[in-house]
Amino acid sequence: MPDEKLRRLVAMRDCDRILSGVRPKTMRDRLADLEAGGDLDGWPDFYGDGPVEALEARVADLLGTQAAVFFPTGTMAQQVAVRYGADRTGVAAAALHPLGHQEVHERHAYAELTGLRGIASTDRPRNPTAADIAALAEPVSTVVFELPLRDAGFVLPGWDELVDAVKATRAIGARVHFDGARIWESTSHLGRSLREVASLADSVYVSFYKSIEGISGAVLAGTEDLARYARAWRHRYGGTLFQQWPAILIAMAGLDRELPRLPEYVRHARTIAESLAELPGAKVFPQPPHTHQFRLWLPHSADALNAAVLTVAERDRVWFAGNWQDATVPGWAMTEITVAAEALQWTPTDVADTATRLLAELP
């Protein structure tokens, strides 16, 4: 691990208060999550049985689907979802957002490994609308909706807009797939339960390490037919590991601990966003946030902000927000704010006080 990254992890871990993000955990810290996730005196999984099947059943029940299949990575699960659509419809093209995870963060695995073509579902920084789908110039097997669309600022459609887009997808004979890595926290903005949201889709992918604070793993949920197909292709892709019980038990612990608290995080994110928007030159998007994550811009360089955050953390034991990146507009930097358990005690006064300390360190 690079020395600078290790320094940031140690500084954040040792802070008394954290505004954005989740306190880093050592491997020993993670052992407590294993204890909380299940009976450690029970038998581990062997090639996907036991604890793996228990987690699959739990997620299928949460989403209201017929079945669910555990994958070691979301990238693998997403490939299987779009491959299934192409195989079942005979159309080797899928409608994907240019800012979606499959285009930006998976090295175009759907094309390189499955031979599918990606068709842009829209060129706007939001999920496709019914009009966008109706205007597609060629047939597609699947339309992918990323809920929320992370690289557009964790943005979500309204419920009625999403329902209309799903109807438009059915009208062109395509399947609906939800890239739901962060679907857990999307229910507040959509105003519907997890089951109601998932019921719109033919398949849903969820992640365990993003909002649930697991260590790895994902589930692809849908029909029994999809599950049989997914298990076969999981094996072919090398995803049927001998044992995965640590990831399974920590995911179980996260579902117990974090899932019920996500609506509270979303509500408090609105308070934090309002406070951050009052900083000199600050820009917050979306305002109010759609989930417990949103974007913050400040008129300073990323290097200066990252250095200032580290200085304040090591001196005052208070973590503001890290991982600043220079924006496309010169002189500005952007970071993603994540409001989780550590931030719930922060008041607008706390935000302003810490920001004052941070800005005092900037050149």
State the gist of this model.
It contains 15 helices and 13 strands.
Explain what this protein looks like in three dimensions.
- With 363 residues, the protein is an alpha/beta fold.
- The two termini are 29 Å apart.
- A hairpin with a 7-residue loop joins strand 9 (283-285) and strand 10.
- The chain is built from 15 helices and 13 strands.
- The model has no long low-confidence stretch (mean pLDDT 97).
- The chain has a seven-stranded mixed beta sheet, sandwiched between helices. A four-stranded antiparallel beta sheet has the order 9-10-13-12, with helices on one face.
Radius of gyration: 21 Å
Terminal CA distance reads 29 Å
> Roughly what fraction of the amino acids lie in strands?
15-25%
Q: What would you say the CATH architecture of the largest domain is?
A: 3-Layer(aba) Sandwich
Superfamily at the CATH H level of the largest domain?
Type I PLP-dependent aspartate aminotransferase-like (Major domain)
Write the CATH fold name of the largest domain. Answer: Aspartate Aminotransferase, domain 2
Mean pLDDT: 97
Number of domains: 2
CATH class of the largest domain: Alpha Beta
Structural class: alpha/beta
Indicate the topology.
Layout: H1 3-13, E1 17-18, H2 27-37, H3 51-63, E2 67-71, H4 74-89, E3 93-96, H5 101-104, H6 109-114, E4 117-120, H7 130-134, E5 142-146, H8 159-171, E6 175-180, H9 187-190, H10 194-198, E7 203-207, E8 218-222, H11 224-236, H12 245-257, H13 262-276, E9 283-285, E10 293-298, H14 302-316, E11 318-319, E12 325-326, E13 333-338, H15 348-360
Parallel strand pairs: 1-11, 3-4, 3-5, 5-6, 6-7
Antiparallel strand pairs: 2-8, 7-8, 9-10, 10-13, 12-13
